[in-house]
Specification:
The complex is a heterodimer of chains A (263) and B (538). Chain A has 263 residues and is an alpha/beta fold. Chain A is built from ten helices and seven strands. In chain A, helix 3 links the parallel strand 4 and strand 5. Classes of the chains: A alpha/beta (263), B alpha+beta (538). Chains A and B meet through helix 4 of A and helix 4, strand 3 and helix 5 of B.
Chain lengths: 263, 538
């Protein structure tokens, strides 16, 4: 199967410019970058994609074993880089994707020139002397929320959603259809994301990195951002004024300007 | 009825807002609450002052907050509206109120978000119903998984022949089938006559054997023949010695074969368990399957032990001691078979100055092959002792096999060595050729004296015989076909390779030579080797 089809890869911008790869986080798909990625088309070859099982990727390619750890998702990233023959990649990862980017850079460090980590957390659950911000019971509650919120996903609508990434003509019927995900896959990804521990992987990274920390982020609190910055050898930490966990949606201009500044 | 005046309409709208049959919220784009209606205050138990200024997401459970950040907020920003999002509000007294939420993002003319308008519906009953549906679905899935596990278990049990292998498979399937943190299978040990741990499947590394209390409790359940269930929170105290640290529930299954107790399985759970009928019948079915299979394995184990002891006792004789020759032998059972095979070797004295050398191979495995081998071995010795030469010994063995069907098609290499002269006379009934290496010379195959395997033809066996003259230091190697079958292609190449191996180790003592020849282990067949060195080594 063609990786570019499998991961619904979209390439835009200047083909001769250095590549910039935007990776979406838990809860949505490449739509998360719709206010940010276009701003770099003048200076970069911009690549966005959906992880297998999300957005308009090929859901049939989803495999419980391959995606049983974040390394499986890091393989998606590396396979896209290989398929497009990308080098000197500027990787921009949101939320869990920032850690997926770390894992990809750990495996093939030569491929990446910069890592931009938006709201990273190497471990969400509190641990001996480490405050991730959540308890195991909190994560179970999240899984519960996912069960109760099929978000427009149903057996009749699923094929339509999966097959039509832009879905403009579907209108009213598809409220909540952005980011609609097979609930089984979503719950699986949530479990993998929120129960993984990638603290040790940070120290293997020598790629220059930018850690973007939102104010008042319920998912990746300030102390976690600082933890990541301390352990990433060549990293810069920037506090955003944006609140919440999704500055790519709530404060795209600030995000764009910080990324430009770093590059 | 006259139309209400604008003022009356305004009052009605205000009352509708405050006491609407749903909660109404107006919040800043970041979630800070700007206005809430009385219905929401009634439902949640907060005062207006307590809520205004707090953020909408602060009213959610921690898991709900993650959902808000990863789904609700992004969707609202991208679509401008979200509908029917299921969340739980944490009320003033800590109670959780299941709600369904619709929100609209209100933007100014420049597209910038101004506020979020939300209606909140009490979904307590609906959620309860949904949970029941989910539970029913989960139960159905669990039942299907258990059915698959039972099928998997019976496939594994059918394939396994060994008690341990079965026990290991059983504990793994049981643990997965009922989500047990730790499963221990114990069986009555033949020697200690008490329950001993045979297999364990633990989620976390678990150490330690059974304590006396635990053993006594398991023993009691085993003898009662009835499953024992216990969960923390129940009135009864846990059975002694079974509920250690972190154990919130246990199940003990009794194993019995043909009505007699044979063992018990202890399952430990980290969380309290309300054992439903499906879980109980699954455990029952597992216990029944295990009991049957374990009994079968026990019988098989016994039979195998008998065959093994029999074979060892038959092969145990030391070769005769004589300064004029040295002998070494090896017997390697095949890796893939648990049963003994029918290979044998023998070295014995015939009168004063001659020794008889035998390597043979009875078709088949197990007790039957071992007993047939023992009879052939004794018959060979008796015939050789009566003074028949190699050809006649094989002729008489042929007749003997006529009355011993189990030994039919056995192959035998038989040789007599005159210790004074070094004269070797030999015959082979369908057996691979012996290998002779004179001092300083190449290793040669002895192709003389050949005939068919024992009992393979009608009528009297032709008296074929071969002869050779052994010089002092000569080596003679007899072997079964397991040595040359293993991993090699073509019988001629295999024999040539064997000859080369023997030549390459001409300086090694014969014991070391044999060790080298079987160094790579065995393939699909047993290997039996006998090597004799004639005369004092120069």
């Amino acid at each position: 199967m063609d990786v570019l089809v499998r991961n619904n890869v979209k390439v835009s911008g200047d083909p001769a410019a250095p590549p910039m790869l935007f990776a979406h986080g838990f809860g949505c798909d490449q739509n998360m970058w719709r206010f940010v990625a276009p701003a770099f088309e003048a200076t970069h070859r911009v690549v966005v994609f959906d992880y297998v099982g999300f957005g308009a990727s090929d859901h049939a390619a989803w495999d419980e074993r391959r995606y049983a750890t974040l390394d499986g998702y890091a393989r998606d990233v590396l396979e896209i880089c290989q398929a497009l023959d990308l080098t000197d990649v500027v990787f921009v990862g949101h939320s869990v994707s920032s850690i997926i980017g770390v894992l990809a850079a750990k495996t093939e460090p030569e491929r990446f020139s910069r890592l931009i980590l938006v709201g990273p957390s190497p471990r969400y659950v509190d641990d001996d002397g480490y405050a991730g911000g959540f308890t195991r019971a909190d994560i179970d509650e999240l899984l519960d929320s996912l069960e109760s919120n099929y978000l427009g996903w149903s057996s009749t609508m699923a094929p339509v959603i999966v097959g039509n990434p832009d879905r403009p003509e579907l209108g009213e019927e598809l409220t909540n259809s952005f980011c609609a995900t097979d609930p089984e896959i979503a719950a699986h990804f949530a479990r993998v994301t929120f129960l993984s521990d990638n603290r040790a992987d940070l120290e293997a990274i020598t790629t220059p990195s930018l850690v973007l920390q939102c104010s008042d982020d319920a998912i990746a609190p300030r102390s976690v951002g600082e933890y990541v910055h301390e352990r990433l050898l060549r990293s810069r930490l920037v506090y955003l004024e944006a609140t919440g966990h999704c500055p790519n949606l709530s404060a795209p201009d600030e995000l764009i300007s910080e990324i430009r500044d770093f590059l | 009825m006259p139309h209400p005046s604008p003022q009356q309409q305004g009052e009605q709208a205000g009352a509708l807002y405050e006491d609407a049959p749903c909660g109404v919220i107006c919040a800043a784009p970041g979630g800070e609450l700007r206005a809430v209606n009385r219905t929401l205050l009634d439902w949640t138990g907060y005062t207006r002052d307590e809520l205004l200024g707090r953020r909408f997401q602060d009213l959610l459970t921690p898991g709900g907050r993650i959902y808000h950040e990863t789904h609700y907020a992004p969707l609202l920003r991208m679509q401008g509206a979200v509908r029917e999002i299921a969340l739980e509000l944490v009320c003033a007294d800590g109670r959780r109120l299941p709600v369904l939420v619709n929100s609209v993002l209100h933007t100014g003319e420049d597209g910038q978000p101004l506020d979020v308008r939300t209606t909140v519906f009490d979904a307590t009953h609906r959620r309860r119903y949904e949970r029941e549906l989910l539970l029913a679905r989960e139960r159905e899935r669990a039942a299907r998984r258990r059915m698959e596990r039972l099928q998997a278990l019976s496939a594994v049990l059918a394939a396994a022949v060994d008690t341990r292998e079965m026990a290991v498979a059983a504990v793994a399937e049981l643990a997965a089938g009922v989500d047990a943190a730790d499963v221990r299978l114990t069986l009555i040990d033949a020697r200690s006559a008490q329950l001993e741990l045979v297999a364990r499947h633990a989620a976390a590394p678990a150490a330690g054997d059974l304590g006396d209390d635990a053993r006594a409790s398991l023993d009691a359940v085993m003898r009662s023949g009835r499953m024992l269930l216990w969960s923390a929170g129940a009135d009864a105290a846990p059975p002694r010695g079974l509920a250690g640290d972190g154990v919130a529930a246990i199940a003990v299954l009794a194993l019995a074969a043909r009505g007699a107790p044979i063992g018990a399985v202890l399952l430990s759970f980290e969380e309290q368990r309300d054992f439903d009928d499906e879980a109980i019948s699954f455990m029952d079915a597992c216990a029944a399957q295990c009991s049957q299979a374990l009994e079968r394995a026990r019988l098989y184990d016994n039979q195998r032990t008998i065959a093994h002891v029999l074979q060892q006792s038959l092969l145990a004789d030391d070769p005769p001691q004589d300064a004029r020759f040295a002998a070494a032998s090896r017997y390697l059972p095949a890796m893939k078979w648990l049963d003994v095979g029918g290979d044998w070797h023998d070295t014995f004295r015939i009168g004063d100055g001659t020794i008889g050398l035998v390597v043979g191979d009875v078709v088949g495995r197990g007790i039957e092959a071992a007993t047939a081998m023992g009879q052939l071995r004794s018959a060979t010795r008796a015939l050789a002792g009566a003074g028949f030469g190699p050809a006649e010994v094989l002729q008489h063995l042929d007749e003997f096999v006529g009355q011993l069907p189990r030994a039919r098609f056995a192959t035998v290499a038989y040789a007599e060595l005159d210790l004074a002269t070094g004269c070797l006379r030999y015959a082979s009934a369908g057996h691979p050729p012996a290998l002779l290496m004179q001092p300083g010379g190449p290793a040669a195959l002895l192709w003389g004296g050949r005939s068919t395997p024992l009992g393979a033809r009608r009528g009297r066996r032709p008296g074929a015989i071969g002869a050779a003259e052994l010089r002092a230091g000569a080596r003679l190697l007899l072997y079964t076909d397991g040595l040359i079958e293993h991993g090699r292609a073509g019988i001629d190449d295999a024999l040539a390779a064997l000859a080369a191996d023997v030549e390459a180790r001409r300086e090694a003592p014969i014991g070391a030579l044999l060790d080298e020849l079987v160094r790579d282990g065995t393939g699909g067949d047993d290997v039996c080797l006998l090597c004799v060195e004639y005369g004092p080594r120069s």
